[in-house]
Amino acid sequence: MSSVPGEPPVMYAINHKREAVEVFRIDSTTSTLGLVWVGCIPLPHNVYANGVAPLPDGGIALTSMFDPTEPGNPFERMFSGSDTGYVMTWHAGGDWTPVPGSGLGGANGIAVTNDGRSVIAAAWTQKKVVRMPLDGAGERVEVAVPFLPDNLRWTAQGTVLVTGQDISADDVRVCDGGEGTNCPTGYLVVEIDPETMTSAVMHDARGSGFGLATTALPVGREVWVGSIAGERIARVPVS
To answer: Is 93 exposed, middle or buried (0-12, 13-18, 19+ CB in 10 A)?
Structure first.
């Protein structure tokens, strides 16, 4: 989501029905919050989008997990350890442009730094989070995490929260996007310093029955954890 002073905030969402980024304006002028569709940005055929984030200059940055035009099972390719995806940017009137040197295994969540010069992206199947310059000219810095990192969320303190799934390639097949049975449960929430790219465990819930975590979102004095499965969220008190 992004906002410009004096204008309604904008929300971006990935649509896999037609492989595009949908653009909505958030309508808060009535008692019921609404979304107004204002258009879409089609994606190239060789892109399977996952995360999307606004850039300060009005463009957007996006992660592509893998190339859907390649033959074979994409999950097997992603769990091979190779770079199957990357980061792209788009600006009005231009084309989608890959970020140089942005290769990632199963590129997933993405966040943009305040200065708009770098992105922080999750390499899902490589179990790491990477900070990289958008111009490709600077240094890539990464930090390992003990799970498959999914979405990334900024905190008010300027750190990044990440959670994900402590599962294997075989678990992914068995769980079938949360629709399967005997999926592993439990999760961790890790807080990353984007300057030093160091991490610390904020919340350890590996003994929890809640599983297949995807998002850790700061909400007041809590962190809300979403999952790809079920109809509940986990609410974690934080100091």
So the answer is: exposed
Mean pLDDT, residues 81-93? 96
Give the integer Cα–Cα distance in Å for 3 and 25. 10
Q: What phi and psi, each to the nearest 5 degrees, are found at residue 87?
A: -105, 145
93: left (phi over 0), alpha (psi -120 to 50) or beta: left
Residues recorded for the chain: 239
Q: 211-236, pLDDT tens digit by residue?
A: 899 999 999 999 999 999 888 999 99
pLDDT digits (tens, 9 = 90+) for 128-147: 999 999 998 889 999 999 99
> In terms of pTM, does the model score above 0.90?
yes
- The identity of residue 155, as a single letter, is T
> For the chain, how far is it from start to end, CA to CA, in angstroms?
26
Output the six-digit token pair for 219: 């909400």
Q: Which stretch of DSSP H or E encloses residue 173? A: helix 169-175
Contact 65, 106 (CB under 8 A): yes
| AA identity, residue 29 | T
Cβ contacts of 71 within 8 Å, gap of 6 or more: none
**Environment class of 28 (CB within 10 Å of its CB; exposed 0-12, middle 13-18, buried 19+):** exposed
